[in-house]
Amino acid sequence: MNEHLCTGFDETAGMSRRSFLNKMGLGLGGLALADMVNPLGAMDASALLSATHLVPKAKRIIFLFQSGAPSQMDLFDHKPRLNAEHGQELPDSVRQGQRLTGMSTNQSSLPLAGSPFEFQRYGQSGATLSSALPYTAEVADELCFIKSMHTEAINHGPGVTMFQTGSQIPGRPSFGSWLSYGLGSLNENLPNYVVLITKGKGGQPLTSRYWDSGFLPGKHNGVQFRSAEDAVLYLNDPKGVSRASRRATIEHLERLQEEQLRQTSDPALENHISQYEMAFRMQASVPEVTDLSREPDAVMDMYGPEVREPGTYAANCLLARRLAERGVRFVQLFHQGWDAHAHVPANIRNQCRQTDQPSAALIKDLKMRGMLDDTLVVWGGEFGRTNYCQGKMTEDDFGRDHHPRCFTMWMAGGGVKAGFTHGETDEYGYNIVKDSVHVHDLHATLMHLLGINHERLTFKYQGRHFRLTDVHGHTVKPVLA
């Protein structure tokens, strides 16, 4: 934990963290003592300066982001009335003049579309899930559903940006970057923030600005791990360059930059030094963590047949557990393909075939290892889908448009109530009728579970103190265990 959590911190104020520590007398002797007292905290010198605002329930987050927006009424939010009135017009009293996307605006009719999937109640909690999610149903009693999520974003780019950064406008730091900046590191050999993307998926494009650190120092950027032989681009040394030679180069650079620091106190130089050092350590740590071959067959089988193919959603879920196990603060999975403007039934079946078993396996795996209590798993997309058909409706096929007014997400572990459902939508699944939760509220709640008061983790940039939740957000206390 570092000084940023106290009253906000201005990285442009002229004095580097290293200069500050030297002037305060916290030299190598102090760091050595801290290492004996708190070896994890000593990995980041800033962790010596303060504690969390609250008692943390979680140490890390794994966010299973379903890019493209899953259809809540075909997965979690059962609406029998939609089936009863399938094909009838969406009542004006339900829509209430709310805006539509440009893809639905010109439709002469907005016919209601019931779900083709059967719903049942599962577990002691009685959570209602679709037949498309048989494996998720097995862990229903571990899940905390929020069925009343909402956002202002109605298109994918702003919607994903909102979930990742707390703003629809690009340029703000991503959630994982804020956590890296505020909480420091649990593992000096791996990044605080790792991004995994399912390979070979079409759909809405993903861009690196979704995991960028924005105006925070660059060392808090998310680092994308790929399924190729070189998991991290530009990490390995060129042919003919030995590890000893690389170590010597870094040491010479560090001495030169330390000399410049004594003269200029430039925080960017310190950031460069830490990046060089991290890259050198990752050359040994990344190949180890990304090697799934040593996992027992029983664990591999739990994640499903695709786990043995690098870059699949299943393989990335298992890799996320391995990263969390080694102290990575924030692991962000992106799985594209949920944007079903047509052929919803086929899309849901295909997407669930790829994601249902691995998502449930991750929950089981974490629990089996005693990690679920302090690992927060989050599942969801940037918004929901409409209860009416976009485009042509046939007897067994239809599409759904974007719907930001209400959608469903789930969480598990890390201090949330297990087997609990929060929020409620109307009988048409169009509007929230109870306990609405905005994206800022979700972010505030996740930070609360990590021990952070979201109003106090700030960064001064261009004369203003920024935070992840902007000037909004309330902790959703009913979901807290």
Word description of this protein:
The protein has 481 residues and is an alpha/beta fold. It has two domains: 359 residues, Alkaline Phosphatase, subunit A (3-Layer(aba) Sandwich), CATH 3.40.720; 55 residues. Strands 1, 4, 5, 6, 7, 8, 11, 12 and 15 form a nine-stranded mixed beta sheet that branches. A two-stranded antiparallel ribbon has the order 2-3. It has a two-stranded antiparallel ribbon with strand order 9-10. The longest helix has 25 residues. It is globular, with a radius of gyration of 23 Å.
Supply database-style keywords.
alpha/beta; 2 domains; two-stranded antiparallel ribbon; nine-stranded mixed β-sheet; 481 residues; Alkaline Phosphatase, subunit A; single chain
Radius of gyration: 23 Å
- Under the CATH scheme, the architecture of the largest domain is 3-Layer(aba) Sandwich
Number of helices, counting only DSSP H or I runs of 4 residues or more: 14
Determine the N-to-C terminus distance: 23 Å
| Count of discrete structural domains | 2
Please give the CATH class of the largest domain: Alpha Beta
How helix-rich are the residues, as a percent range? 25-40%
Judged by helices, strands and strand pairing, the structural class is: alpha/beta
Beta fraction: 5-15%
Oligomer: single chain
The dominant shape is globular
Q: Please provide the count of β strands.
A: 17
Give start-end ranges of low-pLDDT stretches: 11-49
- Overall pLDDT: 88
What is the CATH topology assignment of the largest domain?
A: Alkaline Phosphatase, subunit A
Largest sheet: 9 strands, mixed
